[in-house]
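FOLDING PROBLEM:
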Amino acid sequence: MRGVRLAAVGGCMVLTSLSWAPPALAGSVGRLPAGRLAAASCQLQQSGSPASQMTSEPWPQQRLNFTDAWKLTRGQGVVVAVVDSGVDGTHPQLRGHVQSYDVTKTGPQDCVGHGTQVAGIIGAQDLRARGIPFLGVAPGARLISIKGAVSDQNNDPHWVAAAMRQAADRHAKVINVSSQTPNYPFLKAAVEYAQRKDALIVAAAGNVQDERTQTVHEAYPASYPGVMSVGGTTSTGALGDFSNSQTHVTITGPGKDIISTWPQGTYFNNTGTSFAAPYVAGTAALVRAYYPGLTAKQVKYRIEHTADGGTVKGTGAGQVNPLRAVTAVMGGETGQVPAQTAVRRVSIAQPSEGDRFGRTLGLSLAGGALVVAAGIAVAGAVIPAGRRRNGSAGPAGPNRS
């Protein structure tokens, strides 16, 4: 695909979509040879854009105003796990702030870019003094990358389960999972394992799968009890027409035209619930740092009950409000900040019907040639819940699938 300018607003395509497979086939994925994909070259299919192409502050930062909470907390010391495609820890805004691990046996490097984007939204460092306007929500958090995907395709769903368990064992208090898979017992067991260790799991609710029929299915781990399931909104506050409302959504975050870090020191503009989830995960890090005595359940309750409205299906409690999540006075908690005005509910506009973006990319399972039918890829895979931008070319602009 061709690249696009970071600031451009154009058509987008689904980076990944929810896929399904017959149970017998899906169950065979976990038995693939461990090193099957290790030989694949780590070469990004899309180039990012230099920071110089960011001409203004990204819209999610303007809308969420999470820097207002930085006088109180920057998420300092909270371990946040990014269960994804790996993270490029050499990026200037991530350098020295990411520890990387791998459950795929292919190495911790990010060959997809997806994980680096997610990590940047959560914890990119403040480099405004160097003219870079992009910021992570919780730059004080300790990021750990646990690689559980190797490409846009051919991902074993056992990897994400193993990655969540490892995240919990490495004392992560927030685990971001910007991917989706069918409901498997081993995946549910991994979620429950992490929850018993008081980790708050934040997961993308997934994207609309077939833009001709708007076919959607419940996405996991987002649909499991106790998981913060995140839908995506646009810059107007409306629910994005890419956001999966079939999954039970508990909260929303910015999900359209999201600029974030990209491998090789660059930046990328993307759309999808994959990129809404880390805004909530970053907020959770802010809260957990400021209220270290709160449990994961209490943090979830606080973030959801301080969100901005949410009257449309698929918006849950509404859009995350980082400052209010940190400063609101809530009964039954200790170490509260001074009282402030009551939470004001804001309705979110009903989105227009239909998917205005580009074609859906169906992703398949590892192992064998899988049949694609009716625009929906055969599934069982762990699928990053994002959508790629596509439009007119610009200098070194980003766009990949």
Q: What stands out?
A: The longest helix spans residues 277-290.
